[in-house]
Amino acid sequence: MNPRVVVLGAGFGGLELATVLSESLGDDVDVTLIDKNDAFVFGYSKLDVMFGRATPRAVRLPYRDITKPGVRFLQQEITAIDPEARTVTTDGGVHEADFLVVALGADYDFDATPGLAEGGNEFYSLEGAERLRELLPEFTQGRAIVGVCGAPFKCPPAPSEAALLLHDYLSTRGVRDDCEISLTIPFGTPVPPSPDTSRALVDAFAERGIEFVPSRRVSSLDPARRVAVLEDGSELPYDLFLGVPKHRAPDVVVASGMTEDGYVPVNPKTLEARFPGVYAIGDVATIGVPKAGVFAEGAARVIAASLIARLRGGNEPGAYGGLGSCYVEFGAGRVGRVDVDFLSGPKPTGTFQEPSDALVAEKRRFGSSRRARWFGG
Ligand SMILES: Cc1cc2nc3c(=O)[nH]c(=O)nc-3n(C[C@H](O)[C@H](O)[C@H](O)COP(=O)(O)OP(=O)(O)OC[C@H]3O[C@@H](n4cnc5c(N)ncnc54)[C@H](O)[C@@H]3O)c2cc1C
């Protein structure tokens, strides 16, 4: 019987893992890839949808297109995980695993920020981005706040990108002079491991008249008075609130008993959880790296190499390195890049590449190459 690898979640981590296992082991492995959705959407596509740069339909990559030797995709909702027995219950049945990989990402906790659901909007889900796509054309004057409601949150540069792209959007529509934009984040700088990236972003905010409010998360909204209350008690009035909701591990993961302090602790070198044969990668895990797709993908490759070594014989792979490159939208079609190293030194470090045409093309290739590898075509 082939080894059974059950991969929970077909996001950045799960898709990369299933792809590498299929490429290397083909029909000699049984990979079951489970996701409740029928399509994958890149995180950054939500910004494209919100600002009308792409339609919601265009950014959906349907899972039905996955045809890989050894891989079976199931659209099912996971309702229970037993990490000791390595069994998973879904609305479609029970799945037993020799190797179980939890790659279920992070969910959003709207209730953690009173007033957000009634008085604000969020752009971190496709649904939220679609709603804002409808609302933004009506925003012609007043103050917009891009506000982060808790850390850790996915893709730390994304709120900065949203503020810069909002500036472009309002400028193009000729209403920028009638609008103010404020950005508030819980960190002291936009991208803490890379002072150069942070400096470039803060300069870009200043050039565009975007107010930057560091080191404060949004703790609540008061929809009646239209103010955002920050964690130090200060208040920012708003007419439009574009929020990053507080994140948390999906309920089914918390209920499985695998989490500590909200997420699944793993050995950062091997991605193994506390249970034999069980791994966790990406946003659902505590690895010591940011919550971003490139890190989920890198972790997936380490697990894949380890499983391939075990099943085919060969050397165990080197430890997970915690390296990742993120593209940063500066507006006006300009894209920069930050390369970060989270695990090899005593503290995280990052280097910045100035926006360039080459990076615009590189970001496009980043998306199209994954689309081709994960979905074919
Ligand atoms: C606006 C924005 C911009 C971003 N930009 C970038 C960027 O430029 N670069 C970058 O690297 N990252 C970026 N990210 C972050 C990136 O999208 C995530 O960090 C990444 O998707 C995490 O990968 P993952 O595999 O851990 O989880 P995910 O990709 O979130 O996948 C988890 C999957 O699990 C499924 N799932 C959850 N619960 C269940 C259940 N009970 N049953 C079945 N299925 C379930 C979900 O449907 C989902 O498909 C961005 C995110 C946002 C919101």
Describe this structure in words.
The chain is an alpha/beta fold and 377 residues long. It has two domains: 4-106 and 249-312, FAD/NAD(P)-binding domain (3-Layer(bba) Sandwich), CATH 3.50.50; 117-247, FAD/NAD(P)-binding domain (3-Layer(bba) Sandwich), CATH 3.50.50. Helices cover 28% and strands 28% of the residues. The protein has nine helices and 25 strands. The protein has a five-stranded parallel sheet with strand order 5-2-1-9-21, with helices on one face. A five-stranded parallel sheet has the order 11-18-12-13-14. Helix 6 (195-208) links the parallel strand 13 and strand 14. The protein is globular. It starts with a strand and ends with a helix. The mean pLDDT is 97.
Secondary-structure blueprint:
Layout: E1 4-8, H1 12-25, E2 30-35, E3 39-40, H2 45-50, E4 61-62, E5 71-75, E6 78-82, E7 87-90, E8 93-96, E9 99-102, E10 107-108, H3 116-119, E11 121-122, H4 126-135, E12 142-148, H5 158-172, E13 179-184, H6 195-208, E14 210-213, E15 218-222, E16 227-230, E17 235-237, E18 240-244, E19 247-248, H7 251-255, E20 264-265, E21 278-280, E22 285-286, H8 293-312, E23 323-331, E24 334-341, E25 349-353, H9 357-375
Helix pairs in contact: 1-8, 5-6
This protein binds flavin-adenine dinucleotide.
Offer a concise description of the structure.
The chain is of the alpha/beta class.
Notable traits:
377 residues; alpha/beta; FAD/NAD(P)-binding domain; 28% strand; five-stranded parallel sheet; 2 domains; single chain
